[in-house]
Amino acid sequence: MESWQVALEEQIDGDVLFDSISKILYSTDASMYQIDPMGVVYPMHAKDVSRTIRIAYEHGVPITPRGGGTSLAGQSVGKSVHIDTSRHMNALLEVNEEEHWARVQPGVVLDELNALLKPSGLMFAPDVSPSNRASVGGMIGNNSCGAHSVIYGKTIDHVIELNVVLSDGTQTVFRPVVDGEYADKVNAGGVEGKIYQEVRRIADENRDEIEKRYPKILRRVGGYNLDEFVNDGPFNLCKMAVGSEGTLVGITEAKVNLVPLPTMTGLDVIHFYDLIEAMDATIEILKTEPAAVELVDKAILDLAKES
């Protein structure tokens, strides 16, 4: 057993697994890829996440924060130590019904969260397709959205604060900061101060290129969100963490925005002769401000009939 494995087993209060069966279970997600991990950690609390990342940092071992494993592009597989919060860090911690926000742990599953919120008449809005398996932490990592993104936007639009662990194991909170607070963060030094300084520098030095090349579309989720740092307003590193697919920070808690449950719903089914006609009509349909627009083509209907 290597020194980093011994350190994890000795210092983690949660579960640490290196057996072949666990590795096989975590070698795949919803993508086509299969890569055996180096181990799996189920942290018991934020300190466990911090300890895991610090040990990995000290020993040069890669890590992969993993949600529900529902992504199609292989974000949650890799030859690394997988950190899975679904077993022990899956709670709804606090709900503020008046201000419409909640504090949650990253391992909570979307459907389970919304079931807990339903009595208060609120919900966490991004409605990903695998909502009965996808975790909020994974949604934050992928900047996920769903069929109703035309009115509710993406996950980035609903994250208020993030409790995170930095690359050296430091725990901190990302939230909007104004100029005076920004200066305090930079002057404090350390990894966190360097992050604040470097993100602003990169955004400022590449402002023209960012504004030129980042597409102005509703559902762009590729790459780091540097376009969030070229405009005026509070400096908010939550915007950088969301969509970073676990490559920048580990998430231990999130304060998220909630929206009222819809009081009424309706459905229109419109038939078209071909795909072009449907696409042309979508432009006019969007002017009516629908909650969602979905295309169901012949291939899907045929498969449904055969199932």
Number of domains: 3
Put simply, the count of helices is 12
**SSE-based structural type:** alpha+beta
Shape: globular
**Beta-strand fraction estimate:** 15-25%
Helix content: 25-40%
Low-confidence stretches: none
CATH class (first level) name of the largest domain: Alpha Beta
The count of DSSP E runs of length 2 or more, i.e. the number of strands, is: 13
**C-alpha-based Rg, rounded:** 21 Å
Average residue pLDDT:
95
Strands across the major sheet, in which order?
5-6-12-8-9
What is the end-to-end distance?
Answer: 48 Å
- Give the second-level CATH assignment, the architecture of the largest domain: 2-Layer Sandwich
The major sheet is characterized as: 5 strands, antiparallel
**What fold name goes in the CATH topology slot of the largest domain?**
Uridine Diphospho-n-acetylenolpyruvylglucosamine Reductase, domain 3
Instruction: Write down the secondary-structure element order.
Output: HEHEHEEEEHEHHEEEHHHEHEEHH
Throw out a few tags for this protein.
13 strands; Uridine Diphospho-n-acetylenolpyruvylglucosamine Reductase, domain 2; single chain; 3 domains; five-stranded antiparallel beta sheet; Uridine Diphospho-n-acetylenolpyruvylglucosamine Reductase, domain 3; alpha+beta; 307 residues
Q: How would you summarize this macromolecular structure in one to three sentences?
A:
The chain is of the alpha+beta class. The protein is 34% helix and 17% strand. It is built from twelve helices and 13 strands.
